[in-house]
TrEMBL record:
It holds the Pfam family Aminotran_5. Residues 25-396 form the Aminotransferase class V domain. Its EC number is 2.8.1.7. It catalyses: (sulfur carrier)-H + L-cysteine = (sulfur carrier)-SH + L-alanine. The keyword Metal-binding does not apply. Belongs to the class-V pyridoxal-phosphate-dependent aminotransferase family. Csd subfamily. It comes from Latilactobacillus curvatus (Lactobacillus curvatus). Keywords: Pyridoxal phosphate, Transferase. InterPro entries: Aminotrans_V_dom (IPR000192), Cys_dSase_SufS (IPR010970), Cysteine_dSase (IPR016454), PyrdxlP-dep_Trfase (IPR015424), PyrdxlP-dep_Trfase_major (IPR015421), PyrdxlP-dep_Trfase_small (IPR015422). This is cysteine desulfurase.
């Protein structure tokens, strides 16, 4: 099982390099992923052959660029099982998508005295925009509890989601705890109260099959760069009726229909929400990433990451003084593992791993409230993707053991 995807590693030219005299083992995929040659080639081909602005020109290159940009939208629609391509809005990424929902849709439904519900595991980009909305409207920002192992407490959700709840916004998968939240169940709870379900899918869409209709999400946000695509491109999915209700954040070129001296009319969805020249190459690159992921199959990718975690977790748990955050059972986890080694700052640990060619992240992972909940200042974090291998897990575990030895006994 673990080896079934190893062939894909050779599609990623960046992985074939030496870092600090060691072959690179890239385990920082929750931050951003590497790009397969197919995505790199697609970007180059677009700029070499077809570059033009979209939607405005009648010349051949403009028509080609427009067709490719819109084809990318349809690829996203199919990938996340949206009902219509008009429900797929291209943005800069998850952060922008969530800010648009909180900043533009939020005020159309939230009033003073209402409640907005999130959880303490949220990334800052699914937390700070809701704080801002609560402050501006006089609504109350409330938190659904977590269970001691970091999973969302469904009992708490049932208790706190009530008639005042206008919006619940949750990560589909945590970027620290490795848990997947029961979005469909929570969506049913919030819909029963007449509220809306917003989902931060940054750590889910790259790693599992996502069906926004089956989840019954009202809005769903994710980033291209975490799923083999370029940086600077992401998606805001929204149910059409709700996107219609959402005022554009930006007014200007590309999104207008008729402009008068005192007032204007706007295009229909999705273009109404995409003011200015969009990230055309980024969208086309994301389309190529989706083709690549689809060819492998999301179920295969998920199974592969599951196998890597199943292999890594017991080996990490066996290291004396190493704490893993989140559920301790691999079956309850995604490919994200946050950890600390007793008495060692995670930055020192990450630096020691880097000396062995192993790239992991250290810090608060844009989740300061979660760090406080875990009672730590920071953690180290390894995160797997489809191109990681059994050998990567071995190198990673061995490098941690060597770092522990070095910092405790001064020997390598
Ligand atoms: N939410 C989660 C759960 C994330 O992991 C990230 C990226 N670390 C984001 C939101 C923000 O994504 P971006 O920086 O691409 O906007």
């Amino acid at each position: 099982m673990v080896n079934q995807l190893n062939d894909y590693r050779c599609d990623f030219p960046i992985l074939d390099q030496i870092v600090n005299d060691e072959p690179l083992v890239y385990l920082d995929n929750a931050a951003t992923t590497q790009k397969p040659q197919a995505v790199i080639d697609r970007l180059v081909a677009y700029y070499q052959n077809d570059n033009a602005n979209v939607h405005r020109g009648v010349h051949t290159l403009a028509e080609r660029a427009t067709a490719q940009y819109e084809a990318a939208r349809t690829k996203v629609q199919t990938f996340i099982h949206a009902a219509a391509s008009a429900e797929v809005i291209f943005t800069k990424g998850t952060t922008q998508s969530l800010n648009w929902v909180a900043g533009s849709f939020g005020p159309t439904v939230v009033e003073a005295g209402d409640e907005i519900m999130i959880s303490v595991m949220e990334h800052h980009s699914n937390l700070v925009p809701w704080q801002q909305l609560a402050q501006k409207t006089g609504a109350k920002l409330r938190y659904i509890d977590l269970l001691p192992d970091g999973q969302l407490d469904l009992e708490s959700a049932r208790q706190v989601i009530g008639p005042k709840t206008k919006i619940v916004s949750l990560a589909h998968a945590s970027n620290v705890l490795g848990v997947v939240n029961p979005i469909k169940t929570i969506a049913a709870l919030v819909h029963a109260q007449g509220g809306y379900m917003v989902v931060d899918g940054a750590q889910a869409v790259p790693h599992m099959m996502v069906d926004v209709q089956a989840l019954d999400a009202d809005f769903y946000a994710f980033s291209g760069h975490k799923m083999l695509g370029p940086t600077g491109i992401g998606v805001l999915y929204g149910k059409q009726a709700l996107l219609e209700q959402m005022p554009p954040v930006e007014y200007g070129g590309e999104m207008i229909d008729f402009v008068g001296l005192q007032s204007s009319t706007f295009k229909e969805l999705p273009w109404r929400l995409e003011g200015g020249t969009p990230n055309i190459a980024g969208a086309i690159g994301l389309g190529a990433a989706i083709d690549y992921l689809t060819q492998i199959g999301m179920a295969n990718i998920q199974a592969h990451e599951q196998a890597l975690v199943t292999m890594a977790l017991p080996q990490l748990q066996a290291i004396d003084g190493l704490t893993i955050y989140g559920p301790q059972d691999a079956a309850q986890r995604t490919g994200v593992i946050a950890f600390n080694l007793d008495n060692l700052h995670p930055h020192d640990l990450a630096t020691a791993l880097d000396m062995e060619g192993v790239a992991v992240r250290a810090g608060h992972h844009c989740a300061q409230p979660l760090m406080r909940w875990l009672n730590v200042a920071a953690t180290a974090r390894a995160s797997f993707y489809l191109y990681n291998t059994e050998a990567d897990v071995k190198t990673f575990v061995t490098a941690i053991q060597a770092a522990k030895e070095f910092f405790q006994n001064g020997t390598l």
